[in-house]
Amino acid sequence: MSAKEFGVSAKEFGVSAKEFGVSAKEFG
User: Fold this and answer.
1) What's the whole-model pTM score?
2) CA-to-CA distance for 10 and 14, rounded, in angstroms?
3) Greatest CA separation found in the chain?
4) Torsional sign, CA 4, 10, 14, 20
């Protein structure tokens, strides 16, 4: 995997983590 591809994957993972954080908050 190239560094560029890894950077894009990390960005997408960050978005998923943010969504997961919101779900966790709603779950309480």
Assistant:
1) 0.33
2) 6
3) 38
4) positive
Chain centroid offset of residue 18 CA: 6
Contacts 24+ apart (CB under 8 A), 24-28: none
Report the Cα–Cα distance between both ends of the chain, in Å, rounded.
37
Which residue type occupies 2?
Answer: S
Digitized pLDDT (tens) for each residue of the chain, 28 residues in all:
688 887 888 888 888 888 888 777 887 7
Domain boundaries, the chain: 1-28
Give the span between the Cα atoms of 24 and 6, in whole angstroms.
Answer: 26
